[in-house]
Write the structure tokens for this entry.
Amino acid sequence: MASQKTIEIVKSTAPVLAIHGENITKVFYQLLFQNHPELKNVFNMTHQTHGTQSKALANAVYAYAANIDNLAVLSAAVEQITQKHSSLSITPAMYQLVGTNLLAAIKEVLQDAATPEIMDAWAEAYGDLASLFITKEEQLYQNAEAKKGGFRGQKEFVITKKEAESSIITSFYFKPVDGSAIPSFKGGQYVAVSVQIPDLEHLHTRNYSLSGCPTQNTLRISVKRETGSPDGVVSNFLHDHLNVGDTVKLGIPAGEFILTKTEKPIVLIAGGVGITPLMSMYMELFHFADNEVLFVQCAKNSSVHAFKAKSQKLAKQKPSLQTISLYDEPLSTDITDGIQEFSGLLTIDILKEKLSTLDAEYYFCGPVGFMKSVKQMLESAEIPSSQLHYEFFGPSEALA
């Protein structure tokens, strides 16, 4: 636990971090990858290019400084970060490298304002924070190893099946190369996938939601082909170059976006590729729960709607499950499709029509704009925040 003097000094620097935090974290990442290029194997370098990771880290550092005297308010953020770190196999040695370069970045940006007293306080505070994360992550590693099919770090898996789910989403099924059992996981969790792409200097690692069910004997991820400026490096490599028989390295399943035990109805609301963790939850509910379940699948149209037939098949087998589709740009064939029930955007009236009560647990995932809209809609219906659960793809940000 940091000394009272350290707590006071670090807390007093919070206003400075609010102004200079993003610049500090940009310099930090420059120093880190310059001094330790091997860490590019772990970090998502696309987020570095876009600046989203620097912004996310700046917000996290500011939050720590502002709440160093009451870290309990950061417990949810700490849990999220430790889960992400465990998926990436972060080691105690990496914390030392990060700390050294973060302190150097603070000194470089703040210059004379970063007095020896301030630097000493931040060194102590960072050491305490690193110790907290190392301890929590070690427990996650031990828990993962103790489970059936468990392991620590990364393990080699072979692709046993590759299947198109829509015009832009493809599923990849994996089994351990050594023939052991797949690691246990919960619906909504993700795995880190590391691939070596020819002609690129370092490994590329990305987290992908597990879209399958724990009852299966394979791990399944379902990947959207990301196009734009630039195209998604890893997603396009997976789509175009990896096939049955190829191997990749996977981390341990991780993530806190999982179902909580309840007797209330459960509503899963997916936007686009946000369907992937929710499909896993839906399959878990099919096998292990009797709650009333509504699976809402929002997409542009049926050509990009993944798991349409599969989700409907499960609903036909279990009366407590129902699924609806909403297309904001439906094809002419979608209008008469028996499965297609709504065109346009999701509204609270649609939920009222389909649910016995709005007093439910809501899980939603998709693009940030979509999630903001869903959250605002549910809040306008006075759904308690404790019953709203959501997941970001990429660095976390607030849903205002």
About this structure: The CA atoms of residues 213 and 280 lie 5 Å apart. The chain has a mean pLDDT of 91.
